[in-house]
C-alpha cells in the first residue's frame, strides 16, 4: 500500500461564489513610500475593541510595510472605483501617481480620496502567518464614511454595483413564496 498526498483543493471557485466588498489596504514603508494592495479578504472581529481581520499576501511589499510600521488605512471602495481596484491589484509601480490620495495627520496610510466611500485608520495589534498569507488583526482608531456613496462588490470574478443589487432586491420585495 502506498501513501499518496492529497492535492490541495483550489478554493478560488468556492470563494468567488461569496461576493464581498472591495478594499485597498495602504500604508507607508520605512522610507515614506506609499504602498497599497487590493484586498477583499477582511471581516469584523469584535466591536470592543473595534478590531478587523485582514488577510494579505505575505510576499507583498505592502504586507512588509504594514508589519514593519504597525499601521494601515483600509479604503473601502465605492461602486465607481473598479479601475482603482484593478490598479492596486496589478504590479504597476505607479499606482499612487495614478490615484488621488492624501495623508491626513495621524493616518494609518494614504487615503484614496476619490475611490473610497469609507476609510479606517488602524493599528496592527496581532498577526499570524498562514500559508502564503498573513492575517493582520487591526484595531480601528478612527474612520470616515460617505453615507451617500455605494459600495463596490466583487464576486464570481467580476464587479457589481451595490445600487444595482439593492434595486433588484427592492423590485422583488414581497414576492417571496409566490
From TrEMBL:
<dbReference type="InterPro" id="IPR002563">
    <property type="entry name" value="Flavin_Rdtase-like_dom"/>
</dbReference>
<keyword id="KW-0560">Oxidoreductase</keyword>
<protein>
    <submittedName>
        <fullName>Flavin reductase family protein</fullName>
        <ecNumber>1.5.1.-</ecNumber>
    </submittedName>
</protein>
<dbReference type="InterPro" id="IPR012349">
    <property type="entry name" value="Split_barrel_FMN-bd"/>
</dbReference>
<dbReference type="Pfam" id="PF01613">
    <property type="entry name" value="Flavin_Reduct"/>
</dbReference>
<dbReference type="InterPro" id="IPR050268">
    <property type="entry name" value="NADH-dep_flavin_reductase"/>
</dbReference>
<dbReference type="GO" id="GO:0016491">
    <property type="term" value="F:oxidoreductase activity"/>
</dbReference>
<feature type="domain" description="Flavin reductase like">
    <location>
        <begin position="15"/>
        <end position="161"/>
    </location>
</feature>
Amino acid at each position: 500500500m502506498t501513501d499518496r498526498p492529497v492535492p490541495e483543493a483550489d478554493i478560488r471557485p468556492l470563494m468567488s461564489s461569496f461576493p464581498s466588498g472591495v478594499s485597498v489596504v495602504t500604508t507607508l514603508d520605512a522610507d515614506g513610500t506609499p504602498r497599497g494592495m487590493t484586498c477583499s479578504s477582511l471581516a469584523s472581529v469584535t466591536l470592543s475593541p473595534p478590531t478587523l481581520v485582514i488577510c494579505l499576501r505575505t510576499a507583498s511589499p505592502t504586507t512588509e510595510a504594514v508589519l514593519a510600521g504597525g499601521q494601515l488605512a483600509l479604503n473601502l471602495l465605492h461602486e465607481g472605483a473598479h479601475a482603482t481596484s484593478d490598479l492596486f491589484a496589478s504590479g504597476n509601480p505607479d499606482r499612487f501617481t495614478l490615484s488621488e490620495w492624501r495623508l491626513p495627520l495621524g493616518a494609518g496610510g494614504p487615503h484614496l480620496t476619490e475611490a473610497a466611500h469609507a476609510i479606517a485608520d488602524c493599528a496592527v495589534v496581532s498577526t499570524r502567518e498562514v500559508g502564503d498569507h498573513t492575517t493582520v488583526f487591526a484595531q480601528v482608531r478612527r474612520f470616515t464614511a460617505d453615507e451617500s456613496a455605494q459600495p463596490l462588490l466583487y464576486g464570481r470574478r467580476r464587479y457589481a454595483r451595490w445600487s444595482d443589487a439593492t434595486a433588484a432586491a427592492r423590485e422583488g420585495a414581497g414576492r417571496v413564496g409566490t
